[in-house]
Amino acid sequence: MGTRYKGTREETRALNAFIKLVRAAQSVSGRVESHFSEVGLSVSQFGALEALYHLGPLFQKDLASKILKSTGNITMVVDNLEKQGLVERVRDEKDRRHYSVRITEKGAALIRSFFPGHVARIVDEMGALTRSEQEELDRLCRKVGLQETKASR
Fold first, then answer.
1. Residue 10 maps to a domain
2. Within a domain: residue 50?
3. Could you give the strand order of the β-sheet that contains 87-91, starting from the edge strand earlier in sequence?
4. Global confidence as pTM
5. Is residue 17 one of the residues assigned to a domain?
6. Nearest Cα to 48, choosing from 26, 28, 71, 32?
7. Residue 85, SS3?
8. Which of 120, 102, 119 is nearest to 49 (CA)?
9. What would the pLDDT profile of 47-94 be if each residue is shown by its tens digit?
10. Among positive and negative, which fits the CA dihedral 64, 68, 71, 74?
11. Within its chain, how far is the Cα of 34 from the centroid?
């Protein structure tokens, strides 16, 4: 379903493209992320664990930036992961006011066992597109995602 807004052709085209982009992203995300509850993780918790597993220890503000969350939200995410023994905060030796977050062996074991199935779900979802369509989608999403809008200039 497209927009019912009666604007210019440019407005209607942009709104329809935006609606389709958001709906497709939400639909795919819902199917791919539905299995997180099997291991008791939220989307943000999984994102944090995955980032720490693949990138190594990060300061909370850097972790928040990586998974597109606010610094306030990441504090709660890390608190909950720490309660489960999946991450730990480590005081920075250079600046003892700061803590980095690192994945524990328990957290790493969870990601190692869970991630291949997650990747398989993504591959299955993206299988609706040919290789060249996936590459084009990649290019287009990057273009839109990195655009500096007039409002932010």
1. no
2. yes
3. 58-59, 99-103, 87-91
4. 0.84
5. no
6. 71
7. coil
8. 102
9. 999 999 999 999 999 999 999 999 889 999 999 999 999 999 998 888
10. negative
11. 14
